[in-house]
Amino acid sequence: MQDFIKALTSEGKNTALPEEFNYFGKLIGSWQIDYIESSDPRPIKGEWHFSWVLEGMAIQDVIILPDYEYGTSLRIFNPDTHAWDVAYGYTGKIIRLEARKQGEMIILTYTNDESRKWVFVKIDQNTFHWQNVTVKDNGEWHINAEIHAKRMG
């Protein structure tokens, strides 16, 4: 198993990945999270871990929400589109998204439904805020769920 982990993970970002597209680099590390759905204001406590992988051209994460969902995302920088191709998987489902920066936000748009988005609203050194949104016909964002995260350690 250690051979697999060593082959997968990277010490840092590959120099071939332009710094201007290093959207997710601040997320590297481990985070304590509160996941809150709009239909239930009680937070689900969990963890979210991020690491550079695939020779530093990608970032993989593992999200752990006990008794709710365990999932993983693989974010791979695409030099042809200057965006990140993203796949999120959990038991029974894989979601494909494309990530681009818009101002300070990182917006991940579902590839098969542009009205569905995951948004890193703000990423600081020790906190971040994430939202799962649906864009209504009038352009208004409906927040389906959100995460408030604090860096561990």
Using only CA atoms, what is the Rg? 15 Å
**What is the helix fraction of residues, given as a range?**
under 10%
In terms of per-residue confidence, which ranges show pLDDT below 50 for 5 or more consecutive residues? none
Mean pLDDT: 96
Number of strands: 10
Order of neighbouring strands in the sheet with most strands: 1-2-3-4-5-6-7-8-9-10
Query: What overall form do the CA principal axes indicate?
Result: globular
Q: Count of helical segments?
A: 1
Q: Your description of this structure?
A:
This protein has 153 residues and is mainly beta. The chain is built from 1 helix and 10 strands; from the N terminus they run H-E-E-E-E-E-E-E-E-E-E. It has one helix at residues 2-8, and strands spanning 29-37, 40-53, 58-65, 69-78, 83-90, 93-102, 105-110, 113-123, 127-135, 141-151. A 10-stranded antiparallel barrel has the order 1-2-3-4-5-6-7-8-9-10. It is globular. The relative contact order is 0.18. The mean pLDDT is 96.
Helices and strands in order, then pairings?
Elements: H1 2-8, E1 29-37, E2 40-53, E3 58-65, E4 69-78, E5 83-90, E6 93-102, E7 105-110, E8 113-123, E9 127-135, E10 141-151
List keywords for this structure.
153 residues, mainly beta, ten-stranded antiparallel β-barrel, 10 strands
What is this structure, in a nutshell?
By secondary structure, the protein is mainly β. It is built from one helix and ten strands; from the N terminus they run H-E-E-E-E-E-E-E-E-E-E. The longest helix has 7 residues.
